[in-house]
Design goal:
It is a single chain. The chain is an alpha+beta fold and 289 residues long. The chain contains eight helices and eleven strands. Strands 1, 2, 3, 4, 5, 6 and 8 form a seven-stranded mixed beta sheet that branches. It has a four-stranded antiparallel beta sheet with strand order 9-10-7-11.
Amino acid sequence: MKIPCPAKINLYLDVLGRRSDGYHDIVTVMQAIDLRDEVSIGIRGGGGIAMTCDAAGLPVDSRNLCVRAALGMARYAPQGRGVVIRLAKRIPVAAGLGGGSSDAAGVLLGLNRLWGAGLAPGALEEIAAGLGSDVPFFIHGGTARCGGRGEAVSPVRGGPDLAYVLLVPPVAVPTAGVYASLEGGGPGRAPGVAGLLEALARGDPRSVAARLYNRLEDAPGAHRGEVDRLKALLVSRGALGACMSGSGPAVFGLAADMAGARRLAAAVSGEIGEGTFMHFGLTNVSAGG
């Protein structure tokens, strides 16, 4: 069984404050995109969990969210049945795109079918929330407003397919450090999420682009120079608007349609810098195939 696992971008992300459990309360609108990893799962006789990955350096033991997702589903495995997980990695790692979380959700969705567990989305979300803040979103995909530490998911219906260009510079960004660096820096100037949700309901890419917001862009760090440069480059070459995704360093620019996204990608390709990953496509894809 093969499960496509989409990346996400954050159209809106505000950080409200640190919680007693060490996480931060956020308000975000996440959007699944057509850049995907692929998880393949099969039955392993004799039980247990085995994993392989085509990306060098990624762990394939319990440090990997895919293995932890399988462990979370283990109680639903038929007697004597384990699972073999193969991960084909296409989403850049540690880029603010949620690839690891999406892969974990793909394992949950796949094992729910493979093992005939029959769990409803709400039950899968509960398991997902124990794995990571973004994992519950990927049980659904599409567009969703998320709160709490990100695990409280409210799907947004009827949003438009948005054309985009995604750029990921080769800069390491520790998520925890980005969040921590905001503390003591004063309150942000978040415009509020209502305007973005209204723009999505109208289906107007220009209105959506005008309301992109990410509080984490205010956080200092070695990635800031490249993030600012790539955002400015996208806008100068015709993007309707540009924003950082998650804690970065991924940056995306919105276009009016796919033809515009192709032109935008061609226009910036010679200036993005060596080692920068680029992809263009459409948003609003579902999770789990």
